[in-house]
Amino acid sequence: MNNDIELISDGDGLAVIGDPKAVELFLVSEGLPARDLKLQRLKPALRAGSSVAQAACEVAANSGRWVKLTKESAEKVRRFGLMPSKTPGVSHAMVGEPGSIKSWLQIVKGRRAIAGNPAMLAGAAGIMAQLAMQQTMDEITDYLARIEEKVDDVLRAQKDAVLARMIGVGLVIEEAMTIRESRGRVDEVTWSKVQGAPATIAETQAYALRQLDALAEKLERKTGIGDLATAAKEAEPKAREWLAVLARCFQLQDAVAVLELDRVLDASPGELDGHRIGLRAAREDRLALISRCTERLMARLDAAAGRANSNVLMHPFDAPAVVQSSNRASVAIVDFHGRLGLESARQPSEARRWADAAMEVTDKALETGAEGIDAAKRLGNATFDLAKTATGKLSSLITDRAPGRRGGDEDFGNDHERRLP
């Protein structure tokens, strides 16, 4: 058994290539979960390289596994000293003789099955890009299932023709992915079915981003705390729906990119590396656009929570409701960011208690001296009146709940969440 293995990284993932037993031993010793790299997809790239027969034998004899680079796994990989290759964005190393962790760290000058053939290295980088996108697609599928959002239902509920076409586009792309898995390639017929899909997906993405911007603008326009509470409550479910649509758009865009790389690998393998780099740049642009839009909405939600907290004394019911709705919508955005690989450091806002606000104002008034005492008295009278009003509302709720009072159950059901903080 040849114990030398090749490590290839493109920044998103790590390919481990070599004898199947050596590859498995390396992954187990480093505690790295991996999925099949499917090296057989490199065969079309062999037409562009020299020593085709030897390269084909190397592919047939070797096993390849792919590891998603997280913060933890990237730290482990860094110890192996991967060096930049001639393929842009791709680094490479050979490591040898298993038996202990130290022995893996020895950089050896052995034969290089993949890195020694530029066409094959470009092909491997293309496959790694596909696996990274498929990983994101799987995570988005889990995300949509977990939040119980039926994105097709959201799309059907809209009257816009662009959104209606999105359902059909999704079905066509899923069919093409199934054929790809069955045949191991994307032929001209399969590719012709999905060529028009990117335009429809882009239109739908733009529509969803506009809807999220509209929610942010609506929150910004509201001046009264009561109106702000209503707007924040409405924004929460709508934000979840449009985030689900955006997630589906991103998932389908990645699927088209996977099919596109396979098509280029099959038809023009010499152009694969340039195409991979272009797709990566376009993907990063989409992520940046989505990030800017959702960050704007989060900023408006945070501002709404801040305004509500500063007015809790005069709005003891509506102000906490604004904070709660804003937090729930922001949590949904942070979760969405995580599925797309975007970082969010947003911390939830804490609803300010009415009693704490009253005490703070009283303390500040007392600090001003004699003049402050008069202010404190006025504040005390106002506070007493506000508390009496709240108590009266609570008594009315209890009375309405009493047996024999017509409509009591219904009224109580509408107001049961309105309590003093």
Kindly state the number of beta strands.
Answer: 6
* Count of structural domains: 3
What distance separates the N and C termini? 71 Å
**Major sheet: order of its strands?**
3-4-2-1-6-5
Largest sheet: 6 strands, antiparallel
| Helical stretch tally | 15
Order of helices and strands: EEHEHEHEEHHHHHHHHHHHH
| Structure class | alpha+beta
What helical percentage do the residues reach? Answer: 55-70%
Describe the structure.
This protein is an alpha+beta fold and 421 residues long. The chain has 3 domains: 5-122, no CATH class; 147-340; 354-415. It has helices at 20-30, 52-61, 71-78, 101-104, 118-146, 151-156, 161-183, 188-194, 197-221, 225-267, 272-310, 318-340, 354-367, 370-401, 408-415; strands at residues 5-9, 13-18, 35-36, 63-68, 83-84, 91-95. Strands 3-4-2-1-6-5 form a 6-stranded antiparallel beta sheet, sandwiched between helices. The protein is globular.
Short description:
The protein is of the alpha+beta class. The chain has helices at about 20-30, 50-60, 70-80, 100-105, 120-145, 150-155, 160-185, 190-195, 195-220, 225-265, 270-310, 320-340, 355-365, 370-400, 410-415; strands spanning about 5-10, 15-20, 35, 65-70, 85, 90-95. It folds into 3 domains: about 5-120, no CATH class; about 145-340; about 355-415.
